[in-house]
Amino acid sequence: MSDREPPATAGLDEAPRSVPDATSADDPIAADGLLDRVEAWRDAEPDADMRAELDDLAEAARSGDGDAIAELEDRFAGRLQFGTAGLRAAVEAGPMRMNRLVVRQAAAGLGRWLLEREADGSIERATERGVVVAHDARRKSDQFALDTCRVLAALGIRSMLLPGVQPTPVLAWSITGLDAAAGVVVTASHNPPADNGYKVFLETGSQIVSPVDTEISDAIGEVDPLAVEIAREDDHLIRYLDDSWQEAYVASVPSVRLRPDVAGVPVAYSAMHGVGAETIEMAFAAAGFDRPIPVVEQHLPDGSFPTVSFPNPEEPGAMDLLLETASESGAAIALANDPDADRLGAAIPQPDGTWRRLSGDEIGWLFADHILSNTSGDDRLVVTTLVSSSLLADMAAAHGVHAEETFTGFKWIGRIAHERRGEQRFVFGYEQALGYLVTDRPLDKDGISAAVLMAEIAACAQADGVTVQDRLDAIAERFGRHVTAERSVRIPPSVGAEWVAAIESDPPAEVGGVAVVGVESYPEADLVRLRLEGGARLQVRPSGTEPKVKLYAEAVDVDPDRLEELLDALASAAPDA
Question: Which of 46, 284, 339, 480 is surrounded by the fewest CB atoms within 10 Å?
Fold first, then answer.
């Protein structure tokens, strides 16, 4: 596979513009060393727009602007923390935001961690095998990706940069194909438009899990972000890949089809302004399906996300343009990826001509029904998360296959799939937040291969003279109608964690007038499960990425409004911020 030439310099630096002197005792931002930290960061910042941003904030702060002072204090309150989701924040100047200095610090920390793992023998030939790097279309993503390669090269570590913008599944799939020691993708996934992020993958093609996240975070913390060594763009340790790995990924997608004899149906599709469109069109063609009918306004990559304020298929309104396209085109099913194409949303037509968006669990049930009905073997394994529906375990038992429930976050599904290799055969994993894995590579959620298989499910339904809704009704008739609901309570992280701990240590006697008959704790997931009289279950956990607590409810053959009432009652007990 041939390589491409290094890109032109990503962003020309301008000559620094000095911050005006301000050393008097009454300077509003001189106290507590804030001024020194701002000036030091500003002088090290490689991007002119970031320097200008700090200059403007500093000038406003010196004039007594309280908002500017508070903004600077917030941006310089510490460092952006690296966790199991990597880094995510708004693209702005300062150590608590996403910018090139923060990315260089993260890359250096990752590089040091790899060098340590190579030295202790836990990762073989890390420097030689190197790191695969990709990026999406968000602001500065290309610069962040290239800087990652340059920092790794300065540490003596090989890097391989995928061309252009790439879906996260292509990056994850390429890690094992290239036998890399790790992978990095610059993306904020489905976060708001102002954000960007930084995900790290293990050599298995799955996202990092504890304790690796803590180890890398500690390594990052030892790096001075203002003094990271960086190599030239044409350094011999940086390899610029061509399109071959995207093509190899696409060539693997048809293997997910279980009924290749069934002809396709019209599929409406939204890329949500992300980077999935080109790859999914290639994947559909390779799988023998017609090109999906695109939502034209959302088809091309655009990091400003002009038609959606929150580019997440789970969010109300995010799929409105897709449903219009599906209705007008006569599609049999409507599919949407999130911006980095590792998640999949879906909607189906109703008898009255309207369209209904499916929940993440409903999509998971459809996949499980199709996969378990069209595969065989008692060594099969399906995996889901604690907060997803319990129905998958019942479906697995009916088919005589293994089922596993793991912590929240797809990284744990990938870990189990990897650990069980040779013992059990992973065939499906999902989490209710629209994450699905319908093959055994990559070991991360993949919205592209999942879209191909969901198109096959719709095609099989039509071939059998039924609808996708009929499929769901048949599942409910066999296993009971599982009803699920979710709620988020926005409170500061520390308050949320204390509330969940209080529920665990002193659980309520009842919720919404229904007695609590059991309490289960999952400290590794920061989750508490309440079992109510009559079979309903409520679950509570702090969000790992946002200042809120998430509530989940499930019951069988219950009025959905009653389930919402139970969530309302639980949410009403939340402490004030």
Answer: 480
